[in-house]
Amino acid sequence: MSESPDVTNGLSHIDASGKARMVDVGSKEVTERVATAGCEIHMQQSTLDLIRSGGFDKGDVLGVARIAGVMGGKKTSDLIPLCHPLALNQITIDFGDLANGVGLSITSTARTSGKTGVEMEALTAASIASLTVYDMCKAVDRAMRVDRLRLLSKSGGKSGDYVAE
């Protein structure tokens, strides 16, 4: 039985009969696609001070988290079952200070020239970077909290641009 190309339920990964499916992107145009995602990791001030001073025996927390985020973004299709494997042009990870507390903001941007978007790659990269910070710092601060993982913006493709409020 062939899959129905019609999506009557509004969910692109669910066919009209309710079965999960991988979206067929074969007829889509190749366009430049960019997505930016972000999250926050809240921690004690002493933990943030240790990160900034390089005081962890495991090494450079933000350097390792940056590499882990890039690696995680590249592995997205291995982790999310219906994601297409993508040839990524770039993934970047940036860290900043939280405006509303003690901790770090993590922003990831994924870029590709392809037939499908990179939102999941950007979200995965940000989440893996935050989990790496947690892993490297948990010996001194098990109360760290990862919050507000979200898509911040995306461009390219048929659905157009999106910018979070």
Fold topology:
Elements: E1 31-42, H1 45-53, H2 61-74, H3 76-79, E2 88-97, E3 103-114, H4 119-137, E4 145-155, E5 162-163
Antiparallel strand pairs: 1-3, 1-4, 2-3, 4-5
Description:
The chain is α+β, with helices and mostly antiparallel strands and 165 residues long. It has a single domain, classed as Molybdopterin cofactor biosynthesis C (MoaC) domain (Alpha-Beta Plaits, 2-Layer Sandwich), CATH 3.30.70. A five-stranded antiparallel β-sheet has the order 2-3-1-4-5, covered by helices on one side. β2 and β3 form a beta hairpin. α2 runs antiparallel to α4. The N terminus is likely disordered.
In the sheet with the most strands, the strands line up as 2-3-1-4-5
User: C-alpha Rg, in Å?
Assistant: 18 Å
Overall 3D geometry?
elongated
Question: Structural class given helices, strands, pairing?
Answer: alpha+beta
Beta-strand residue percentage: 25-35%
Kindly state the percentage of residues in helix: 25-40%
Mean pLDDT across all amino acids: 90
Number of helices: 4
The CATH architecture can be named as: 2-Layer Sandwich
Order of helices and strands: EHHHEEHEE
What's the CATH class label? Answer: Alpha Beta
Unreliable runs: 1-8
CATH topology grouping? Alpha-Beta Plaits
Domain tally: 1
| DSSP strand tally | 5
Instruction: Let me know the CATH homologous superfamily.
Output: Molybdopterin cofactor biosynthesis C (MoaC) domain
Tell me the distance between the termini.
43 Å
Largest sheet: 5 strands, antiparallel
